[in-house]
Fold this sequence. Notes:
- The protein has helices spanning 2-15, 23-53, 64-73, 125-132, 158-163, 213-223, 230-249; strands at residues 76-80, 82-84, 100-102, 107-115, 118-119, 121-122, 145-149, 152-156, 174-180, 189-192, 195-198.
- It is an alpha+beta fold.
- The protein folds into 2 domains: 2-73 and 183-244, no CATH class; 76-180, no CATH class.
- It has a 5-stranded mixed β-sheet with strand order 2-3-8-7-6. A 4-stranded antiparallel β-sheet has the order 1-9-4-5, with no helix packed on it.
Amino acid sequence: MINSVRNTVLFLLNKDNRGYISPLEYNQYAKLAQLEIFESYFGDYARQTQLQNTRKRALGYGDIVAQTRNKIDVFSTSATLTYNDVQDGGVASVGEARDYFNLPNNFYRLINLTYNGKVLEEIPKVKFDMIIDSNLNTPSLTYPIYYQQDSRIYARPLSINYTASTPQGSEIPLIMNYIRKPNDPIWGYNTIQGDPVYNSTTSTPFEISEAHEIDLVIKICGYAGLAIREADVVTVMQGKEQQEVQLDNS
Length: 250
């Protein structure tokens, strides 16, 4: 799809006398378009769930909530979080309150955190210290908690920091289940007689469904300065398919 989308985009730009976009520009626009569609899944899921809860949406094959959830689940993954020991005056001190865990680079949304088979409960920062100081529900290995601040995870009890750190030799990892960002699409190519020619082995495909091919074309054309309707894209793609069939039969 990474190549067919580009071919359609170039055809439409040329047809409208909008010139040419380089492979670098195309890859940048493709990244933005895929990310925009990916992020729309979550808003769609929230809206459709609300409608389904009011019995305004069908089930079975018409269950848009399930269909959107399936699109999101493609990007679900897990990772062992990296422990960050914040040193005091250059002295390592594992298991301190100031220590934290780093989020993965491709993190988008958190599903849950688990430690030694227990799911950590997320606590708002404003209540975090109150719970730590509480005599009734103090964090423990049977009641672990955390809060997220920017790209950091702070977990309690502190024994989680201690046992999940490398120097101890008996690590129990802190596992994050999360939704990752899609990989950047790349249209790879070789330069032949001055022209870029598609190379599938150096390309990275789109990770969103092929059902979004028209959406990708429209968004990439928009980034390139061309406003186009869905019907125009469909017409172009159908014409290209007919040409391919004629070539196969000739």
